[in-house]
Amino acid sequence: MTITIKRKKISFLEKLYVVEIIKGMLITGRHLISNIIRPSRMMTVNYPEETKPIDEGYRSEHRLMQRKDGSIRCTACMLCATACPADCIHIEAAEGPHAKAEKYAKVYTIDHLRCVYCGYCVDACPCDAVRMDTQVPVDAFTKREDFVRDINYLKDNHGDKDPVSVADYP
Ligand code: SF4
Ligand code: SF4
Asked: How far is the centre of ligand 2, averaged over its atoms, from the C-alpha of 55 (Å)?
């Protein structure tokens, strides 16, 4: 079946485009003057000089939480790596120095190029050892290997937040 779409008839003035161009310029001018008079109401920001605050609940770069003694809370249980749908967490366990935690993560890396920021790792962790509340969006790099964040980066990636979790041991 053929469907015929009725097109709106264009008037002579519209065909000239001059009036339409003037109408468009008036709208642009109205926004320009409004932005100059009331810059606080502007919908845009001068990125990257200006940035909008990131919401508290935004899933951002990971950080590894610490105990009060400064050691990393991770007990290398592998639950986060198992829950990760992107298979981007790599952990190597070693025998731990703490009596209550028989293992610790000797190696802990997250490939942020593969990460889908789902937060399953945070949900899966029984020790509150990994969080995604840094409010740091992933950086842009030119080399793939730069996206892989190791344990040294993750354990210090706290910004102005408290690195210590007061959850129960471990
Ligand atoms: S946020 Fe999701 S994809 Fe990223 S490391 Fe955690 S579980 Fe894996
Ligand atoms: S971060 Fe949490 S879930 Fe992942 S290995 Fe460490 S203790 Fe287990």
From this structure: 25
Cα of 120 from ligand 1 centre, angstroms: 6
Q: Is residue 79 part of a domain?
A: yes
Tell me the CATH number at 70: 3.30.70.3270
One domain, residues 43 and 72: no
| Structural domain boundaries enclosing 91 | 63-155
Q: Give the residues surrounding ligand 1 with Cβ less than 6 Å away.
A: 83-86, 88-89, 110, 115-121
Neighbours of 156 (CB within 10 A): 12
pTM of this structure: 0.77
Helix (H) or strand (E) holding 95: strand 89-95
pLDDT, tens digit (0-9, with 9 covering 90-100), for 22-79: 999 999 999 999 999 998 888 888 888 988 888 889 999 999 999 988 889 999 999 9
CB of 88 within 8 A of CB of 114? yes
User: Does 19 lie in the same domain as 96?
Assistant: no
